[in-house]
Amino acid sequence: MINTITLNPSLDYIVKVNNFKVDELNRSVGEQIYAGGKGINVSIVLKNLGVENTALGYVAGFTGDEILRQIKEHDVDCDFVKLENGLSRINVKLKSDGETEINGSGPDITEEDLKSLYRKISKLGKGDFLILSGSIPKSIPDDIYENIMKALLYSGVEFIVDATKDLLLNVLKYRPFLIKPNHHELAEMFNVEIKGDEDIIKYAKKLQEMGAKNVLISMAGDGAILITENGEALKRDVPKGTLKNSVGAGDSMVAGFLAGYLKNHDIKEAFKMGVATGSASAFSEELATEKEVNELLAKMN
Ligand SMILES: Nc1ncnc2c1ncn2[C@@H]1O[C@H](COP(=O)(O)OP(=O)(O)OP(=O)(O)O)[C@@H](O)[C@H]1O
Ligand SMILES: O=P(O)(O)OC[C@@]1(O)O[C@H](CO)[C@@H](O)[C@@H]1O
């Protein structure tokens, strides 16, 4: 069983504005609304790649209803805790000359809601993967990811964690199967300036020493570096293509990596599939489809 947890899902409101100007009325030239949040994106891409999985987390209000409707439209199983109050957030992704994002803070989650989530994950066991992705709402204690992993420590569940700063650093002792910070997040975690691949490898290896089994550092259009469980450092460039929408590229990479790994447990194939899937999403308005991923895979060595 593969499960994703999105503690703070969103509706991503993608709005395109030509020559956006602050302090003026801008009119959009295109708008889309997609269910988002990192774990949900991972779930949708896994499903697109033929990997059955269940999306877990919290939803609230009419925005939560729309998030669930869209997840079901993607044919992804879901088992969210529905909050009694508040609204799932709307995250604004403004596309003009560059990409500007405003992510909401999300609804309040009570002790009882937390217990409901723990009840759902208590059924997981050996051979299952649990993907913990994204930020956590302010009302949840910030050791939630490590507590979830601690609760499942002897269950045999493998964890994938895509989070930043302490949220990520604090789970390393529970030996996640995979972590995927981007190179900016890596620099931020060690409070250093990263000047090139050598620095990336050096600090990624530190994360491995702290407990992570496989460390995948994404670098947007510059590809990715993987430190495998046996300490090998691998680098991949991205395939050629035109950037259309990078929102969810990192989540797609995580989904692609896992889908690739599940085929025959070959970590190099997983890496290749991760890069192809991240790029396929970056080259598409929506999240990558299997066809788009296969087209890029065919172009990669
Ligand atoms: N401009 C791009 N061109 C080609 N591939 C890209 C581009 N941006 C992202 N990708 C692909 O997606 C992967 C993950 O991208 P990135 O490093 O931006 O992740 P991220 O910061 O977690 O992204 P996000 O938070 O937007 O989902 C990259 O390693 C690459 O394979
Ligand atoms: O606020 P978080 O949880 O860090 O990130 C949320 C988010 O930006 O991540 C996804 C892209 O990776 C989007 O679908 C979503 O809006």
Automatic annotation (TrEMBL):
<dbReference type="GO" id="GO:0009024">
    <property type="term" value="F:tagatose-6-phosphate kinase activity"/>
</dbReference>
<comment type="similarity">
    <text>Belongs to the carbohydrate kinase PfkB family. LacC subfamily.</text>
</comment>
<dbReference type="GO" id="GO:0008662">
    <property type="term" value="F:1-phosphofructokinase activity"/>
</dbReference>
<feature type="domain" description="Carbohydrate kinase PfkB">
    <location>
        <begin position="12"/>
        <end position="286"/>
    </location>
</feature>
<dbReference type="GO" id="GO:0005988">
    <property type="term" value="P:lactose metabolic process"/>
</dbReference>
<comment type="function">
    <text>Catalyzes the ATP-dependent phosphorylation of fructose-l-phosphate to fructose-l,6-bisphosphate.</text>
</comment>
<dbReference type="InterPro" id="IPR002173">
    <property type="entry name" value="Carboh/pur_kinase_PfkB_CS"/>
</dbReference>
<dbReference type="GO" id="GO:2001059">
    <property type="term" value="P:D-tagatose 6-phosphate catabolic process"/>
</dbReference>
<protein>
    <recommendedName>
        <fullName>Tagatose-6-phosphate kinase</fullName>
        <ecNumber>2.7.1.144</ecNumber>
    </recommendedName>
</protein>
<comment type="pathway">
    <text>Carbohydrate metabolism; D-tagatose 6-phosphate degradation; D-glyceraldehyde 3-phosphate and glycerone phosphate from D-tagatose 6-phosphate: step 1/2.</text>
</comment>
<keyword id="KW-0808">Transferase</keyword>
<dbReference type="InterPro" id="IPR029056">
    <property type="entry name" value="Ribokinase-like"/>
</dbReference>
<keyword id="KW-0423">Lactose metabolism</keyword>
<dbReference type="Pfam" id="PF00294">
    <property type="entry name" value="PfkB"/>
</dbReference>
<dbReference type="InterPro" id="IPR022463">
    <property type="entry name" value="1-PFruKinase"/>
</dbReference>
<keyword id="KW-0547">Nucleotide-binding</keyword>
<comment type="similarity">
    <text>Belongs to the carbohydrate kinase pfkB family.</text>
</comment>
<dbReference type="InterPro" id="IPR017583">
    <property type="entry name" value="Tagatose/fructose_Pkinase"/>
</dbReference>
<keyword id="KW-0418">Kinase</keyword>
<dbReference type="GO" id="GO:0044281">
    <property type="term" value="P:small molecule metabolic process"/>
</dbReference>
<keyword id="KW-0067">ATP-binding</keyword>
<dbReference type="InterPro" id="IPR011611">
    <property type="entry name" value="PfkB_dom"/>
</dbReference>
<dbReference type="GO" id="GO:0005829">
    <property type="term" value="C:cytosol"/>
</dbReference>
<dbReference type="GO" id="GO:0005524">
    <property type="term" value="F:ATP binding"/>
</dbReference>
<dbReference type="GO" id="GO:0016052">
    <property type="term" value="P:carbohydrate catabolic process"/>
</dbReference>
